[in-house]
Write a structure and sequence with these properties.
heterodimer, A: alpha/beta, Rossmann fold, seven-stranded mixed sheet, four-stranded mixed sheet, about 25% helix, B: alpha/beta, TIM Barrel, eight-stranded parallel barrel, 12 strands, about 35% helix
Chain lengths: ~200, ~260
């Protein structure tokens, strides 16, 4: 069994995510093969780009069922997190429906978009993924769409309005920010994910 | 609250970090990867690598250093220089860069910006603009091929017109390099940056002129830029990023603390 598999969604930030785990001492396998993803002990769904394109890639690779049936810990990152929800208005596409929620354009109340840069978290829930996270921690965001706060929000961020920075349900979780590019704080989330026993 | 970004810029030529004054007389500062790592550990919020040879001499440039940077760096970084096509950009993003920045090639073929936006998303697409204040006309004008003094030339664009145009085409961020200030450390061009800020709805990064901590305070407080880019003050240790951040936080500017 391969310990950690990064799903090769055909998106661009895969090597950054791979390197971030490598810096923590975890050698991930990057794959788009059903059997390898199913056999992983942990699965990461990365993503950069548009939801429509990313979901098309996943469908073409015939990975929808595979990803929907995973029982092991799953972490979506940025667009990868958005793909875990039910639907994205970016391209009006159905997503994987692993965590209820809808991806909508950020209502930034006149602030500049994309929401790009380091921002803080609030409403941080007691969850193993967010062990040792506090309101003083900064993480790196780059996005124009987001998930409104809901019962599956594990942490929120404010940019003109509150949105979900981390979501989770059962064995599946996702971060809107980029832990692989969020310095020591981001590395903490990835380490917490590797130790998570949902 | 979204933090203002401190962005060391590393000008790269033949795989080495170099720095010149007003884009000229480049001297070697050091190897890319250790310098990048040092800045990430010192509290930089983001790094920009400008391959300054690439656009001006037309050859295929070895970009394997991008992957080596991605392996060691845990903050975002942007690669600029010589990106002429979607395929060029794709390779750099695949190697682990978070953003790509286009400058001269976008002036030659503005639709490149839209192609990059449609393929990789607006958030990846940075447009660098080299702007020079022409005393005779009293206007800011866009220059191209600024990596090579012998080929540097004025374009038909006024800076303000080009800023509007690139936003329409899909730029996700603009780096405005004020050439009159570059390398002379006398402060950012607050007047120009404020004027561009008023017509720039995407993140705006100030470049050119940082020489002291107060220059950063001024550019954040007076020009409301999203980030401030600097090179020589960091390379030559005139300013330590930790000291800079401590001072900016003390002045009430939203900054990610050095940890």
């Amino acid at each position: 069994m391969t310990d950690l598999v990064i799903v090769d969604t055909g998106c661009a930030n895969i090597s950054s995510v791979y390197c971030a785990f490598q810096r923590l001492g975890y050698e991930a396998l990057i794959s788009n093969e059903t059997s390898i993803i199913q056999g992983a002990s942990r699965v990461v769904v990365p993503g950069v780009g548009s939801a429509g394109q990313a979901m098309r890639n996943i469908r073409q690779l015939e990975l929808v069922d595979t990803l929907q049936q995973l029982q092991q810990p799953v972490l979506g990152i940025c667009l990868g997190m958005q793909m875990l929800t039910s639907h994205s208005m970016e391209g009006d596409v159905a997503c994987l429906s692993l965590i209820p929620g809808e991806v909508v354009p950020l209502q930034a109340d006149g602030l500049r978009l994309p929401h790009m840069g380091w921002n803080t978290l609030h409403s941080i829930q007691a969850h193993p993924l967010l062990k040792q996270f506090g309101p003083e921690d900064y993480v790196y965001f780059v996005h124009s769409f987001g998930v409104a706060p809901n019962e599956y929000s594990l942490a929120q961020c404010n940019y003109g309005t509150d949105f979900s920075a981390v979501i989770g349900k059962g064995n599946v979780a996702g971060a809107q920010f980029h832990p692989e590019r969020s310095g020591k704080v981001g590395a903490r989330l990835l380490q917490n994910f590797m130790e998570w026993k949902p | 609250m979204l933090a203002k970004r401190i962005i060391p810029c590393l000008d790269v030529r033949d795989g080495k970090v170099v720095k010149g004054v007003q884009f000229r007389n480049h001297e070697i500062v050091g190897d890319i990867v250790p310098l990048a790592q040092r800045y990430a550990e010192a509290g930089a919020d983001e790094l920009v690598f400008y391959d300054i040879t690439a656009s001006s001499d037309g050859r295929v440039v070895d970009k394997s250093w991008v992957r080596r940077i991605a392996e060691v760096i845990d903050i975002p970084f942007c690669v600029a220089g010589g990106i002429k096509t979607v395929a060029d950009a794709g390779k750099i993003l695949e190697m682990g860069a978070d953003k790509i920045s286009v400058n001269s090639p976008a002036l030659l073929r503005p639709e490149l910006i839209s192609e990059l936006r449609d393929t990789f998303g607006q958030q990846c697409v940075v447009v660098g603009i080299d702007s020079f204040f022409d005393v005779a006309s009293g206007q800011y004008q866009v220059y191209q091929f600024t990596g090579d003094e012998s080929r540097t030339q004025k374009t038909r664009w006024l800076t303000s017109d080009w800023v509007k145009q690139v936003q329409q085409l899909g730029a996700g961020e603009i780096v405005l390099n004020c050439m009159n200030q570059d390398g002379v450390r006398s402060g950012y061009d607050i007047a120009q940056l404020s004027a561009i800020r008023a017509i720039c709805q995407v993140p705006l990064i100030a470049s050119g002129g940082a020489g002291a901590i107060e220059h950063f305070s001024q550019v954040f407080q007076q020009a409301d830029v999203d980030g401030a880019l600097a090179a020589s003050v960091f390379h030559k240790a005139v300013i330590e990023i930790a000291d800079l951040k401590t001072q900016l936080i003390a002045e009430g500017i939203a900054i990610r603390p050095y940890t």
